[in-house]
Write a structure and sequence with these properties.
alpha+beta; 3-stranded antiparallel beta sheet
């Protein structure tokens, strides 16, 4: 093996042999520093492992959210690896100062930043969302046509489960840059329906019947907020009432409460003899229409 290597080196030109010899000499001289830098990186790995076990416990005792704990641990890990890598580089190659290494790292960071602009944008937006917490897991939100319950918030994206069961994974930058409607920001939400009664009915009496019916529905929280009923308009076939009440803020609460209120109002109006009219149409003609009576006896 040694003879083969010596023969191969002998074939090379003298300048190249001298250059390779210089590389080998420099490598053997730097080998102790390289081994020392590897040992230092091993120590950094051990420290990061200890932090990965101890920090989550401390953050859990501080009642920090799980997603935010992951962000803190990730930032600590990345920061320690970068710092450890710079120190290890200066140990292995003493001619490379920390300033030069940081300059090279900064230039490389700018290039990487341009190449992965969207990734870093979503990453930073995710950190800000986790810190500010405008919404959290289990909240029902709406943003840019996406409507559903938040299942998970990561540093890059947010998982939204629609009410029909479909899962939407959206980038965090969308929720950071656009208005977000948080439907469950409070435990109660207001909902409204329109009820029409015939023109021949007494408006005040109809209002009382509707109010009594709405207050008897279990899901209506009239103990917290008053039920409001206003005569809204003279419609084509009816006088329309705007009926407003407060109930649970989840979408299923809204649907269930509307179902109960509509059923109660219909039943109460029927029992009171108050008409909920069908649409009426009145036809007028420019010229009178002649009326003819059909003689059924003559046809028979």
């Amino acid at each position: 093996m040694g003879d083969w290597l010596a023969t191969a080196l002998a074939i090379l030109p003298a300048p190249m042999r001298d250059q390779l010899a210089g590389y080998a000499t420099a490598f053997w001289r730097a080998l102790p520093q390289i081994l020392l830098s590897l040992l230092f990186l091993l120590a950094v790995w051990v420290v990061i492992g200890m932090i990965g076990r101890l920090v989550p416990r401390a953050l859990a005792r501080a009642r920090m959210r799980n997603a935010l704990q992951d962000v803190v641990i990730m930032l600590l890990t990345v920061g320690l690896w970068l710092l450890g890598g710079l120190i290890a580089l200066t140990i292995a190659f003493p001619t490379i100062t920390p300033g030069k290494a940081l300059t090279a790292l900064g230039i490389g960071g700018v290039a990487i930043g341009f190449a992965f602009k969207d990734v870093f944008e979503n990453f930073l937006a995710g950190i800000l969302l986790l810190i500010r917490e405008p919404f959290s897991k289990s909240d029902f939100i709406e943003c840019e046509g996406i409507d559903g319950q938040v299942e998970d918030i990561t540093v890059r994206d947010t998982h939204i489960r629609r009410t029909d069961g479909q899962l939407v994974v959206a980038p965090n930058a969308m929720f950071f840059k656009n208005p977000v409607t948080i439907r469950t920001a409070r435990s109660l939400r207001r909902t409204t329906i329109i009820v029409g009664v015939a023109y021949g009915e007494d408006v005040d009496a109809a209002r009382e019947v509707i109010a009594t019916a709405v207050k008897q529905v279990d899901s209506v929280r009239d103990d917290v907020r008053d039920v409001q009923i206003f005569a809204q308009e003279f419609a084509s076939s009816s006088i329309n009432f705007e009926v407003t009440w407060w109930t649970g803020s989840r979408p299923v609460d809204i649907r269930a409460s509307r179902d109960g209120v509509v059923s109660a109002i219909k039943r109460a109006l029927d029992e009171a003899g108050i008409e909920i009219p069908f649409p009426y149409r009145t036809l007028t003609f420019k010229e009178p229409l002649p009326l003819m009576r059909e003689n059924s006896d003559a046809q028979g």
